[in-house]
Amino acid sequence: MVEVRLYTHGPKASIPVDGLEELGPDVFIALEGLGTFRGVSLEERARELVKSGKDLLKHSLKIHKESTRRGHASITTSAMLQMEVRDCSRVLSMLLVAPPFGSYLQESQRRSEVSEEYVVTPPNLGLNSRGYGEAVSKMLGFYRRLVKEGVELEDARYILPIGVKTSLFASVSLETYVYFLQLPESGEAKEYTPTEVFEFAERLRELLEHVAPALLEARLSFRNRLATYPFPNPFKKNDPLVSKVAKRFNYPHETVVLDSLIIEEPGEEEMLKAVYEGEKETLDSLNPFINVITLEPMSLVAYHQAIRHRTVPTAVESIYDAVQRALKNPEENTVIPPRVKNREELADEFQHIFTEALELYRKMIDNGTPPSSACYIIPQALKVYVIRNYNGYNILYPQGFIGTRTCSYTQWEERGI
Known about the structure:
Layout: E1 3-10, E2 13-14, E3 22-23, H1 25-38, H2 42-52, H3 56-69, E4 80-89, H4 90-96, E5 102-106, H5 129-148, H6 153-156, E6 165-173, H7 178-182, H8 187-192, H9 195-211, H10 213-220, H11 240-248, E7 256-262, H12 268-276, H13 280-286, E8 290-299, H14 300-306, E9 314-316, H15 319-328, H16 338-341, H17 344-366, H18 371-374, E10 383-391, H19 392-396, H20 401-405, H21 412-416
Antiparallel strand pairs: 1-4, 2-3, 4-6, 5-6, 7-8, 8-10, 9-10
């Protein structure tokens, strides 16, 4: 059962205005919104409303609904939440850390060893429950063997299913997770979206109804699901765009540059000078002059880490498409860590267990288990294709993607990409 614990939220404040106690996010943000018309001053706007005799919460709801209807996203991006999500699987965490407007700290399988207590059993397995348990036990057994034989945790984890527990801390705005709150619980969405996502959304909604009911009601009354910022989601029926591009390039084993735009105006010499001499103002201007779009094959391990670098716009193929491709050719769609691949016996066993897990996935689907539950058995070594868009910051800056992911402490697969 997914646990969501909200530790802090805001903005909120106590102000010296008669008749008011602590102002929560609903009233606080409404008052600041009024400040865009008559000057930002929380105390002055609060005094005006108290003097007028208006009900602050009802008036706040009216303001938020009107602002939301007009498309003012700064209303729900101003409400902040700091929470822990516990006892969720990496299936759910793969989605929770994907939205770009958030900050996330997650329990790492590079450092934390996985045991039987970490296994997550999804619902709706039916007759497949026993087979699922046996397969996960076998994967865990091989994981322990790899660790015992000196393979580091960061490499041994590749054989683990994505249905294992993790935990994370998220500092986000209310707007960050609106997508989950809007998900319909029927039809195609429920067939391909893991149940944990709906559990998380339900718990988050309960918390928001307590701390920011007016903001929540106003935002959810705006039902256009396109009015949320895009983020990568592998748990969808299919993605013809990414799949089509991967197929066109014959499912490459290495990164392919699909397109690049490097405007010549600054000149190569000037660019390099700005980089080497740390001329921030020049580099800041160079940022939009550079744009590189890539097609990248990577394991689910690397994908889960890469999406946490939120400054790189990313699209990912459907995990269900990736599994179907892997079922036709398991060897070509398995990412085996070098430390395992270099030892023939371990590599053979790794591939065998990986393929068995995929076959169980197929069997579960054939027996009527929805993909949203069957996906929990998918090994983290599964190869998926990703489209990424790098700007000047991510290519040239030390804190950009290239700068941070090429250091010696970075996970080997990301460094290679």
